[in-house]
TrEMBL record:
<dbReference type="InterPro" id="IPR001433">
    <property type="entry name" value="OxRdtase_FAD/NAD-bd"/>
</dbReference>
<keyword id="KW-0547">Nucleotide-binding</keyword>
<dbReference type="InterPro" id="IPR051930">
    <property type="entry name" value="FNR_type-1"/>
</dbReference>
<comment type="similarity">
    <text>Belongs to the ferredoxin--NADP reductase type 1 family.</text>
</comment>
<feature type="domain" description="FAD-binding FR-type">
    <location>
        <begin position="5"/>
        <end position="105"/>
    </location>
</feature>
<dbReference type="InterPro" id="IPR033892">
    <property type="entry name" value="FNR_bac"/>
</dbReference>
<dbReference type="GO" id="GO:0000166">
    <property type="term" value="F:nucleotide binding"/>
</dbReference>
<dbReference type="GO" id="GO:0042167">
    <property type="term" value="P:heme catabolic process"/>
</dbReference>
<dbReference type="InterPro" id="IPR017938">
    <property type="entry name" value="Riboflavin_synthase-like_b-brl"/>
</dbReference>
<dbReference type="GO" id="GO:0004324">
    <property type="term" value="F:ferredoxin-NADP+ reductase activity"/>
</dbReference>
<protein>
    <recommendedName>
        <fullName>ferredoxin--NADP(+) reductase</fullName>
        <ecNumber>1.18.1.2</ecNumber>
    </recommendedName>
</protein>
<dbReference type="Pfam" id="PF00175">
    <property type="entry name" value="NAD_binding_1"/>
</dbReference>
<dbReference type="InterPro" id="IPR008333">
    <property type="entry name" value="Cbr1-like_FAD-bd_dom"/>
</dbReference>
<dbReference type="InterPro" id="IPR039261">
    <property type="entry name" value="FNR_nucleotide-bd"/>
</dbReference>
<dbReference type="InterPro" id="IPR001709">
    <property type="entry name" value="Flavoprot_Pyr_Nucl_cyt_Rdtase"/>
</dbReference>
<dbReference type="GO" id="GO:0034599">
    <property type="term" value="P:cellular response to oxidative stress"/>
</dbReference>
<dbReference type="Pfam" id="PF00970">
    <property type="entry name" value="FAD_binding_6"/>
</dbReference>
Amino acid sequence: MSAAEKYTVEKITEIQRWAPNLFSFKTTRHPGYRFVPGQFARLGVRKDDAIVWRAYSIASANWEDHLEFYSIVVPNGEFTTELAKLQEGDELFVEKTNYGFLTTDRFECGRDLWMLSTGTGLAPFISILYDFDTWEQYERIVLVHSVREAHELTYQEEIRSFGWNELFAEHAHKLEYVQVVTREAVDGALGARITELLASGELEAHVGLPISVEHSRVMICGNPDMVEETRKLLTTRGLTVAKRGKPGNLAVENYW
């Protein structure tokens, strides 16, 4: 397969610096690029005479004319070090194929949608929240974002904007946004890891909604250890991972 068949060359159109080690960026989007909210793209940056590739969940809506991604800068990281150097107008490569199964179409029925994230694992859930079908399908939507320090609570305004955005206002009452900060005390935020909050029942008590096999559909994205621990914890309560042709209650994605 030739390079032209494998990927497109896009340009960075906007960069948002959230913190010294956190940023999001938008790129142009090829008209032929399609994805399902929750999926990820493979991005390439040029390093010396080669292209280095990494997977990044898409944060933008599938109906927007741009793509958006959310990144942490890994010290001395082969990919993110180069990515962080890029400026508006610089080129980035995007594989034409989309990937991943962290999508709501993995589920059948269900009344409550839980989205559990750590760090930059928030990205696919932003895209899913921009999907109108998500709001129509579920009665309650719980978005949990766990970080170490308060300055890592990104996308707050965008998440809260669903309450007044005329496109979503009819269903905005369904959303419960839960902030978790584990290394400092923050008013209104929970203070323990997601796995601890689930094991103790504090998360469900805080939301006022139990996680059950019958009603709950749970999506998990972020640190691989958190994803695996949370999956194990919930499977002991009877929830099962959704697979192709075999609907379940859980959908997971290791974000790095």
